[in-house]
Amino acid sequence: MSETETKVEMTNNKLYIGNLAPTVNEDSLRDLLKDKSGSVPTSVLVKRGGYAFVECKDPAAAEKAIESLNGFSFMGTELLVEPSVPQNKRMFNLEESKFQLFGANCDHNGKPPVLLNKRTNG
């Protein structure tokens, strides 16, 4: 890390792990996390689409898991490991084909705005 870069402290203990091989299950992912990050996750949920959500015991353990597993080759695929973002805080951007955070300047009590579809007769 260069002098101009600053490390952002992790405040979330939940992770998204993407690009999983179809044969990965909760036990194999739990064992990998234990071996590579030195910490046993609190919960692991592997989804059929090749991704998983993992809850670590604390933000420091989550950060260590990201550092040790992001880009790591596991069962023939390179893992993508990053902090999990709640679904209501994501928005799909078709131009860039990636998720982006939104709602920081929103005056809706922290909730995303509601879009209304007005129907006109005539």
UniProtKB/TrEMBL annotation:
Locations listed in the record: Nucleus
Amino-acid biosynthesis is among the record's keywords: no
One GO CC annotation: nucleus
CDD domains: RRM1_VICKZ
Biological process (GO), any one: mRNA processing
Molecular function, one GO term: mRNA binding
Keyword annotations from UniProtKB, A to Z: mRNA processing, Nucleus, Repeat, RNA-binding
Keyword RNA-binding among UniProt keywords: yes
Cited SMART domains: RRM
Chief location: nucleus
InterPro entries: Nucleotide-bd_a/b_plait_sf (IPR012677), RBD_domain_sf (IPR035979), RRM_dom (IPR000504), RRT5_SRSF_SR (IPR050374)
Domain RRM: 13-86
PANTHER family cross-referenced by the UniProt entry: RNA RECOGNITION MOTIF RRM DOMAIN CONTAINING PROTEIN, SERINE_ARGININE (SR)-TYPE SHUTTLING MRNA BINDING PROTEIN NPL3
Name of the protein in its database record: RRM domain-containing protein
Protein species of origin: Oedothorax gibbosus
